Amino acid sequence: MKIDIITLFPDMFKGPFDMSMLWKAQERGLAQIKLWDLREFGLGTRRTVDDTPYGGGDGMVLKPEPMVAAIEAAKAKNPGARVIAMTPRGHQYVQAKARQLAELPGLILIAGHYEGFDERIMTYVDEQLSIGDYVLTGGELPAMVVADSVVRLIPGVLGGEQSAHDESFSDPSLLEYPQYTRPVEFRGERVPDVLLNGHHAEIEKWRRQQAQERTREVRPDLQ
Ligand code: ADE
Predict the structure, then answer these.
(1) pLDDT tens sequence across 8-34
(2) Ligand 1 atom 5 nearest Cα
(3) Cα dist from 178 to 89, 191, 208, whole Å
(4) 109 alpha carbon to ligand 1 midpoint, in Å?
C-alpha cells in the first residue's frame, strides 16, 4: 500500500511514522509512506500557498494551484491512489471505511490548514473525510489517524492476524471486551475466574456478554 500525504508540516509526521507499527510496516515493505511538502509547490519566490478569501472573512484559504500541482505530482508516483481530503466538512470516518481503504493499492491524503481549501481543489479529490465532530488546527492529525488505522489492517502488519479482527469496531455494533494479563491478583483485584480455567466456549460467552454490557453503558447509539 502506497500512502502519499500532502501537508505544509511534514515534520509533524516524523514521530508517529518513525515508530511502532507504522515504522515496522514500512520496514517490512508492507506500506510505503511518502510526505509531500506543499510549500515546494508554492507560487513565486515566496512559495505562496494561501490567500485571503473572496467575499471577505477571517483567515486564509489554500490556493488551488499549489495543491493541485502537489496532487498531480503524487498521482504520477501513485497512479491508482484514491485522493482524500481531510476536512471537518467530510463524511465521518469509521472502521468500515478503514477496511475499504485498506483494500486499495494507494491513498493520497491531503491535510489542509488555515480556514480551508479553495473549493475548486475538490474537483481533484475523490472523497472528503472528517475524523469527528470537532475542529482541529489542521488535517495532519486526521491524516495520521487514517494512515494508522489503514496500515494496521494490511495483512502481516500486526503480529497475529486475529488481533485486528477481534477488536472494537471490527463488529461496528460492539465495543471490545476487557482484557487481563499477569499477575492474577493486583492490589486486591483478581482476574475473573472464567479466564483462568481455559474453557474456550465459556470464555467466548463471557467476552461477548462483557462486550454487550460495555456497549450498552458507553455507546448505546451503536446498538
Ligand atoms: N481538519 C480539522 N478538523 C478536522 C477533522 N475533525 N477531521 C478531518 N480534518 C480536519
Answers:
(1) 999 999 999 998 899 999 999 999 999
(2) 88
(3) 34, 10, 10
(4) 12
